[in-house]
Amino acid sequence: xxxxxxxxxxxxxxxxxxxxxxxxxxxxxxxxxxxxxxxxxxxxxxxxxxxxxxxxxxxxxxxxxxxxxxxxxxxxxxxxxxxxxxxxxxxxxxxxxxxxxxxxxxxxxxxxxxxxxxxxxxxxxxxxxxxxxxxxxxxxxxxxxxxxxxxxxxxxxxxxxxxxxxxxxxxxxxxxxxxxxxxxxxxxxxxxxxxxxxxxxxxxxxxxxxxxxxxxxxxxxxxxxxxxxxxxxxxxxxxxxxxxxxxxxxxxxxxxxxxxx
Length: 261
Ligand code: F6R
What we know:
Layout (H helix, E strand, L loop, with lengths): L1 E5 L2 H18 L4 E4 L6 H14 L7 E4 L1 E3 L10 H8 L11 E2 L8 H14 L5 E4 L21 E4 L2 H7 L12 E4 L2 H5 L3 E6 L5 H9 L17 E6 H4 L5 H10 L8
Helix pairs in contact: 1-2
The chain binds fructose -6-phosphate.
């Protein structure tokens, strides 16, 4: 794992967006795996800026989102369909037919999940997967105790996740209890992965994911098994890392480090 620590959320977001842009410039028909939530908003803002000001082209890109709340329609303001449209898709030239987001309203979840997995494969697999991390260490909605070999399926959200995400809803009871989510196994098949985390409230999850044992209790720790993961952290999220000095030393010495190119 490569650990890149930036002082601020904005710097972290710009550095991660640069990696995405580099992927699109070298492979214009790349398949992106996308995340929602507060964490990637800065990356999407920067990608939109690069599209508008520097012509970053999404015309051949295909995207697969990680997850969606069960029961929310596409136009529900808290649905991940709506989030992606508002934060990225409506601002760039990605063809709508190339956008895949799990359905929160299908009447056959089992068939839908199998189809979603198949579509990822038919599109050639995910080249670059963007991830946030939950305060309970989840990636996508793979809550603690999820199988590290899991595939796209329905998950019951943990109480911690419901409490964390209640900030987007009027009241906690409005947060859906179920989500459809790519599995840990699905995520690990991406050819490269960017894990982003910002804020002191993520510091415990970050240290467990990066420096703790690989365990289904912190599904982000499974990323330790992947050969191409870059973690972009802001300073508060990195604060509890035992090897922080080492990562920063590597970052300073590494001629190819993304923030220096
Ligand atoms: C969202 C997702 C989740 C979030 C995580 C962190 O698509 O898959 O795993 O990345 O819950 O959420 P934020 O970024 O809101 O702190």
